[in-house]
Structures are given as C-alpha cells and as structure tokens.
Amino acid sequence: MKKIFALIMASAMTLSLVACGTDAAAQKEADNASAPAAEEQVENDDAKTYNVGVIQLVQHPALDAATEGFQDALKEKLGDNVTVTIENASGDSATCATIANTFVSDNVDLIMANATPALQAAETATSTIPIVGTSVTDYASALDISDWNGSTGVNVTGTSDLAPLDGQAEMLNSLFPDAKEVGIIYCSGEKNSLFQAKKITEYLEDYGYNVTDYTFSDSADVATVVQTACGSSDVLYVPTDNVAANAAETINNIAVTAGIPIVAGEEGICKGCGIATLSISYYDIGYNAGLMAYEILANGKDPATYDIQYATEFTKEYNATIAEKLNIEIPEDYVPIEE
User: Fold this and answer.
1) pLDDT class for 46, splitting at 50, 70, 90?
2) CATH fourth-level superfamily of 165-279+315-336
3) C-alpha separations of 210 from 164, 183, 186, 202, 204 in Å
4) Tens digits of per-residue pLDDT, 302-331?
5) The architecture CATH gives domain 50-161+281-305
6) Diameter of the chain by CA atoms?
C-alpha cells in the first residue's frame, strides 16, 4: 500500500513540474514576442521632431512652387516628425521682419526664407537658428558678402534661382537680332535684380545693343516706368524680380499695346508679360532646399560651410498668347508655357 501511495505522489509531482515548465516557456515566448514591439515604441517615442518656419515674400506661382517643393522634400524625409508653418508677407519687407522675429521667439529649429527680402529679414533676426533660402539669385549681394567663396560663413545656406544670364542674352539676340535698344526694367530696392541687370548688360553690349536701365521703387511706379521704357526700347528684359512679378499684368498691358516684346528671367514673369524665357524649375530649387534643410536638421550639416546650390537644368519657354498678339515667330525648340 505504501508503495502504491509513493508512486501516486511521484506522478503528481512530475505533472506539476511539467505544467510549471510549460507556463514558464509560454511566458518567455510571449516576452520575446513583445520585446521588438516595445523597442519600436521606445524608438518612436524618442524620435526627434522638428518645427520649421517658412517666410514667403509674396504669393506668386514661382515662389509658391518653391515652397511646395521644400515641403515635399521635408515630408518625404521626416514624415510626421516635422511641422512646417508657412507665413506670407504679402510683398512687404517689414512684414518679413515681423514673421522672422516671431519664428525666433517660437524657437523654431530652422527658418526657410523664400525670396531675398525674406532671407535678409531672417538673417537679421537670428545668428543661431539655421536659415535655408530659396528663390534668391545672388547670396553675396543679398547678404553684403564681399569675399564670396561659395558659402556664406554664417547661419545661412540655400538654393539660387539664377538662370544663365549669358544664355538669356543669347536668347534675346537670337529672337531679336535687328533690335538696337534694350531696356531692362526692375525694382531698384531688390539687390538681386541689380546684380542681374549689371551682368546681362555686359553680355548684351557684347552683341552690340545699347542697354538702358529703367527702375521703379515700388509697384506704384511700375506703369510710368514701363511706359517710358517702351517709348525708348525695341525689346525689354525683366530679370527675376518679385515686384515686377507681382505687377506682370500691368507690365503686359502697356508693353503689348506698345508692341514691345519682353524677354523674362523666369517662367512666372514670362507667363504674365513675357514672350520668352530660359527658365529653371522653382519647384526643383525648393525641393533641393528641403533636402538641404534635412541635412542640417537630421545630420548636423553646418549652414555656414554648406555651399549654395544652383539649378543645372534650363528650358527654353515661350508665351504663345503674347507671341501671337505681337506676331512673333518662335523657333521650334521652345516649349510653350502652360496656360
């Protein structure tokens, strides 16, 4: 009887141990299965988030495209870990300064400045927060840098909207070889416009043109200045100029009535008042600015030594509507600007 009882007790203990072992194994397997999920949750919780402020000088197709490209690049790289706040200054430099100071007070991680006055306002507002510009033609002129070496040496970098001015002069000459007088119209307050006017004047004079600058201080002067320019010019050139871009309809009405064609520095101005342009993609330079911002935010790239980036692709474009009105035949290698 004792022997039978001992056997029963031994069997019970064995079953108990097996059960305990099974529970422990199951628990260990469950713990192992949940570990990656827990680690992933920690990674997500620890992922750095960024706040980026955008100062856009004015609502205009070219600048709008640059801002869109910038956002797309950052969102592709950082997803939901970046918040982009866009403020439009409605063409006012003082408003650019107010927006920049607000972003500095909010301690954003980076400021994107779309157009020269926006860049200048941001650079004045902070020397520590990284600034990435776009739609800026010449950073040396914009920031008063005399010893230019490709980077700014301060907390600013970005992309340029400079199209090849020698190529634009060549375009003007190929379209209007018999012209004598070329008028350049731009805003005297935009340093980048002055830079472009000086450079293209050299190229145009090499082709034998007489070149005259016609400048306006703000949009109120545009009509008077354009009328004067049309009265003394065979063809006009308008560089990438934000005030001119905003007044393109006014410029067009006067120039078309006078029968004076305009070669423009970029697609947006050409669409509004020009007949042809050798243009860049503003979406592309905005996108590249977004990639530069990512390198600064995520990988610690120093904007002070980060070389300014330039467009590498250019397109010959023409405005079919204005070409027809002025009865000007455009070569076959030009692409019509979409209405």
Assistant:
1) low
2) Response regulator (3.40.50.2300)
3) 20, 8, 17, 10, 8
4) 999 999 999 999 999 999 999 999 999 999
5) 3-Layer(aba) Sandwich (3.40)
6) 130
